[in-house]
Design brief:
With about 260 residues, this protein is α/β, with parallel strands linked by helices. A hairpin with a 2-residue loop joins strand 2 and strand 3. The N terminus is likely disordered.
């Protein structure tokens, strides 16, 4: 697998892909739920455009998602409904939207409050040609989060440039002993060749055991480096999450008027 990001005569060409599925058992029609007067998928699209990293495309599985994205001036492509993972959906979108891109930034469609700077931070590790995948994490600052299996822990070692190299990802409270714990945030920057290699691999033993797709990459010998960012993006998976995000947007609107 080549680690090249393209010709040295130009910067790497980045494509931001936002996978969005209509099916959600906990929050029906999740991408279309209203947040501050816009569908959630459009709020995420806005954050991606604010980051100004490259072209942005929504990988949808329903024509209604495409319609609201296009009404907002964005681009959407239809993808199959039966993909086994978000990475497979992202790969299909790349084939339909931009096969000449060098790097694909996979941004989840349920993080309407993500800081655009965090998206740039996910790309930073790929400045090192030895890195296959870039991603981000935050420090867990409360005991409940340290023990919560839904907070995926990134077990890392610090390296040069303020980055961390990922050694493992787990739902367990790890590592043990004194020191910080980090929550992995599922934003991935892929080299195109890495994504092609990854989706061609079968699910790995630890991936199946932990139910964490990124372990497939580590088990295959791919290098994942992680940037530490200051704040969690507050994803939306339940009606309670939606209420919290709507309240946060309302607070931001009041602050902007002050």
């Amino acid at each position: 697998m080549s680690a090249s990001t393209g010709s040295s005569a130009r910067p790497p060409r980045v494509l931001v892909v936002i996978p969005a599925r209509m099916a959600s058992s906990r929050l029906p029609d999740k991408p279309l739920t209203d947040i501050a007067g816009k569908p959630m998928i459009v709020q995420v699209l806005d954050r991606a455009r604010e980051a100004d990293l490259g072209r942005v495309v929504v990988a949808a599985d329903d024509a209604r998602i495409c319609a609201v994205v296009e009404a907002a001036g964005g681009r959407a492509v239809m993808t199959r409904k039966d993909h086994a993972s978000g990475s497979d959906r992202v790969r299909e979108a790349v084939k339909k939207a931009d096969q000449n891109c060098d790097i694909i930034l996979n941004l989840q469609g349920d993080v309407p409050l993500i800081d655009p700077a965090s998206l740039a931070a996910a790309l930073d590790p790929l400045k090192d040609p030895a890195v296959d995948i870039g991603t981000i994490m935050i420090e867990i600052r409360d005991e409940a989060g340290r023990q919560d299996p839904s907070f995926v822990k990134a077990v890392t070692t610090p390296i040069e440039g303020g980055r961390h190299r990922a050694l493992y990802f787990t739902r367990a409270t790890a590592p043990t002993g004194e020191g910080p714990l980090y929550q992995h945030i599922g934003v991935y920057a892929w080299r195109r060749a890495t994504l092609e290699r990854f989706v061609a691999l079968p699910p790995s033993p630890l991936e199946l055991r932990e139910k964490l797709e990124q372990l497939r990459a580590l088990e295959a010998g791919m290098r994942i480096d992680v940037s530490l960012v200051p704040a969690t993006p507050m994803d939306v998976n339940t009606p309670q999450d939606l209420d919290r995000v709507r309240a946060a947007f309302a607070e931001l609107a009041v602050a902007d008027k002050a």
